[in-house]
């Protein structure tokens, strides 16, 4: 979501001030679906407070793709940009405060910001960083064992371990909750090493 860049670009406050009133602020409980798999995304989401996850249905089992926390933005990007059905669901997993901005307004804002050279360069860097993160996770999912993926999560994103329920973490790692318990038990006993 575009407003995650607000703190990084205070010189663009005129844009933020103009578009902030067009957002819809929602205070919502856990387990609130903001987008359903198979539905076209028409809103970009900014997380002010809480935690969201993206997941898809895999033959009746929910498979978690990613987690999003405070000051992060998200949407089902391909769906949002290309008007296609979303491949996944977006759902809160904590009571959350989110802002929604319609596709029409996001595209209008992006068009205006294309004239700001500094913004485009930073936007490209941030996008590249996010793509690098996702490709790293994809490679890790193919190359690494579930134990190695859990250790990497502990090292690089410990806030997920601290805030997210174990069954969602297990789903994210591609293992059962029982398997995750075994991994944690081995780690606690010192049988797994970084």
CATH architecture of the domain at 2-115: Sandwich
Count of alpha/pi helices = 8
For the report, how would you describe the main beta sheet?
A: 4 strands, antiparallel
Radius of gyration: 18 Å
Approximate helicity band: 40-55%
Please give the alpha-carbon distance between the first and last residues. Answer: 34 Å
**What is the averaged pLDDT score?**
88
The CATH class designation of the domain at 2-115 is Mainly Beta
- Give the class from helix and strand content and strand pairing: alpha+beta
What is the β-strand count? 8
* Lateral strand order in the biggest sheet: 1-8-3-6
Instruction: Name the CATH superfamily classification of the domain at 2-115.
Output: Jelly Rolls
InterPro entries: cNMP-bd_dom, cNMP-bd_dom_sf, RmlC-like_jellyroll
Protein name: Crp/Fnr family transcriptional regulator
Domain Cyclic nucleotide-binding: 27-112
Brief write-up:
The chain is of the alpha+beta class and 194 residues long.
Structure description:
The protein is an alpha+beta fold and about 190 residues long. The protein has a domain at about 1-115: Jelly Rolls (Sandwich), CATH 2.60.120. The chain has helices at about 15-20, 75-80, 105-115, 115-145, 145-155, 160-165, 165-175, 175-190, and strands spanning about 25-30, 35, 45-50, 50-60, 60-70, 70-75, 90, 95-100. It has a 4-stranded antiparallel beta sheet. A 4-stranded antiparallel beta sheet has the order 2-7-4-5. The relative contact order is 0.16. This is Crp/Fnr family transcriptional regulator.
